Amino acid sequence: MITRSIGAVFIPVREIISARAWYARLLEIAPIGEIAHGHLWRVPMVGETNLVLDSKAFVGPQDAKPIFYFKTANLKGAHDHCRALPVLALSAIRDDVFFTLKDLDGNPLMIADVI
């Protein structure tokens, strides 16, 4: 039977080493850990849902709209942090709740302060 639990969210990336470094900088963690099968890096996350960067057969970003959001309790601080990163796009804070950005491969990400 299928459970109501997400095991992992995959993000397509061009090059796994540079993507690992960028996401580590975004999340302020060390860019360490095994790169499985030469193309997968499981981002160390809090909670049970995994985030996996995958460079196998990259055909482009998942570029429609963000499919998840990173949580923050300090939206302005998070926005300032992202402004200092190399990003392809960074929105203003919207509705005092969230902002969006694009990673170096064009994948849309969201940062939100929601309950």
Automatic annotation (TrEMBL):
SUPFAM superfamilies per the UniProt record, alphabetical: Glyoxalase/Bleomycin resistance protein/Dihydroxybiphenyl dioxygenase
Q: Which InterPro entries match?
A: Glyas_Bleomycin-R_OHBP_Dase
- Superkingdom of the source? Bacteria
What is the designated name of this protein?
VOC family protein
The record lists the organism as Rhizobium lusitanum
